[in-house]
Structure formats: structure tokens, C-alpha cells
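Late entry, evening session. Most of the bench is empty. Finally got around to the prediction I had been postponing all week. Sequence below, unchanged from the version circulated by S.P.
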Amino acid sequence: MADPAMRDEVVAAGFDFVTWRRGPTGLAADPTDFSDMADWLRRALFNPAAAYAADVRDELSRSATDAVLCLDVLFGAVIGADAAGVPVAMLSPHISIRPLAGVPTATSGLQAPRTAAQRAEVQAANEQFANFMNGFLPELNAACARLGVPGVSHVLDIFDRPARVLMGVSEAFDFKADWLPDNVRYIGPLLDQPSWSEPWQAPWRSERPRVLVACSTGAQGQGELVQRVLDAVSALDIEVVATAGPNLAVHTLSAPDNVHLLRSAPHNAVMPEVSAVITQGGHGTVNRALINGRPLLVLPMGRDQGGNAARIEANGAGLRLPPTASAAEIATAVSRLIEEPHFRAAATQLGNAIKADIDDGRLVQEMMAVVQAQAGQRSAAARTRRGESRRVAF
């Protein structure tokens, strides 16, 4: 169940597809204006939570369902599954939205604390985020009331309700928490080639070092930053492939002679051919670069990008600069990534750990555990209805 824009991709993967009926779709579901984040969250997630919940509940009533897997920001889907009495798992295809003990929030960009002062800074940032999220408590509890399920005392308490919160990152990539909630599991990243990616034909004209500039697939007003990156690499003796992505028109950018500017390319094919990757720090680009052993220069502009940049930097697998960095600063950082081998060694080591998590297929394992637990509960309930009992020895 998803936005109509995903129909072809879902059907091509061999799944049945249904669209939201009450929940918003298109730009209403994913506004492009992030200038007021509170307004964005209210319009995209919290005001329509009851609509998403009703759509999920109604779909579950149409056919027997063992479990629901939903995106972590679709709080309404958790409410709808609760209303239908079906176990639910939340999938976080990024570092944790819910602050974890001793770990800075995804949006803070802070490093893992090492001193008492740093720990206090992280704690303050996490509390600030929690208070910000609690500003949407009335909308969330109104959705709960409409679906007839208990409300929450804090917005982030919604993460305690699912049987699983599946973290689509590797534990080796993330900062280590003081402790994890019982329902949290790391499953490694879920990477697939986007359906809009175009065929790749290597354009290289020389044996000079090669770099990939991978722009965000989201609309973040990144045009000025990307142009500054292109200006920066023009001063280096390298070849560059730059992919603009679906939300930045190629014709709005001016590419120097050593840059091959494309709308898109399959990054899985491009990354083995380059020495480094320049990115805003989105989840997919970061993980693809690491599993190919490529160090990154990250210039985060928002969302989870600052958190990803902090983890790249902490692991020694790349460098971070602010999105306001000058062309000269960017060029210096790119040169370091190419010339200093320790960055590539760290990226390779971290990438190997990530590849091992991908190979484990933990998403399927965890969802099967949720289904089996539900089956066990149904069996126990049936025995109770029949008057059977079981004796357990300790």
C-alpha cells in the first residue's frame, strides 16, 4: 500500500498493489517546502494520521494478514494495525528517529559523546527533539481516538507499540547506545537501484582519478551547493561524474570540462570505478559508497544527513563540511580523500561489516519471528477457549 507513483515499481517486483484511499498522495503526502519543519510534519504525518490508520485497518479487514511492516514515520499505520489487532513492525531506513540512550538525535549532527560536557549536550539535544515532537501529541491522540485505540502520553511512545522497530542501518555504522529498547533490531541497509535510474555507459576519457558527485534524490534546494561542488572539482586534475537526481534539472547547472553531468546513473555500477564520492549524505548513497570501499565527502543539508556525516567522520571513512563550505575548502577535502589511503581503508573496513549484515537477510528473519509469535498467541488463545491448560516447570 503506497502512493500511486509507486504502482509500476511494486507490480514489477511481483507484488499486489493498493493505494491510499483516504491518506494523502503526491505532493500533499510529501511537500517539497521544508522551510518550516513543524508545518511539514503536521501536514505530511500528523494531520493525516487518522486517514492512514483507517486505510490500513480497512485493508487488513479484507484478507487474513499475519503482520504489517510500515515506514517508521507513518505513525497512522501503527494505529491502524493496532485497531485491526494485527502485529506491526516499523522499518527505519536510516539512523533512529527516536533518540536512543546516549546517542545524539538523527537531525542534530552531533558526534557520540566522550566527555561529561558532550554527554550533557547530547542529552539536551535529545530532550529538545522530544519536546518538539510532543507538540504534535493532540493530533496523534485524536487519530488514536478515532480508531478506538489507546492514546499515548508522548509522541515518541508510539515506538514502543510495534513488535519490532527494524533499523535499516548496520550496528557497525551507528553510534553505540547505552542500551536499546527491547523491540529494536539492527538489520543492515536495504539497497536497491531506483526505477528512474538510467543505463550507464562509462564516459571516462583518461586515467586520472575519478570522483562521483551524487546529489540528493529529495528536493532540498540543493542547486547552489551542487554548482559550488562542480566549481570546486574543476580546479582538480580528476574526472567527475555528477548525477543531478530527479529533483534538480541538469540544464540549471554549469558543468566544467572535467565533469560528465547526467540526470541519473546506476550508482552500483559507477562507484567501483571512482576513488571518492561527494554527497549531501543520504542513506542510500552513503551505504553504497561504503560497501564499495569508497570514502565520502558529506555536505549535509538536513533530514538524517548530518547524523550520517557524523558517523562517517567518526569511523574515519570520510570528511564532513558544512553546506556553506567554499569551493576551495571542498577541493582540498576531495584531494585529501584521493591522496590519503587511510580514508579508503576505513571505508572498506566499515563497508565489509555492512555487506555482512546485508547478506544475513535479517529483515525476513525478524518478520518471520513476528508472524510466529502471533501464531503462538493465537494457538494459546484457542486452547484457552477450549478450556485446555499447560503446565510449565521452572
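Two things to note before I forget:
DSSP finds 13 helices and ten strands in the chain.
The mean pLDDT is 86.
Will write this up properly tomorrow.
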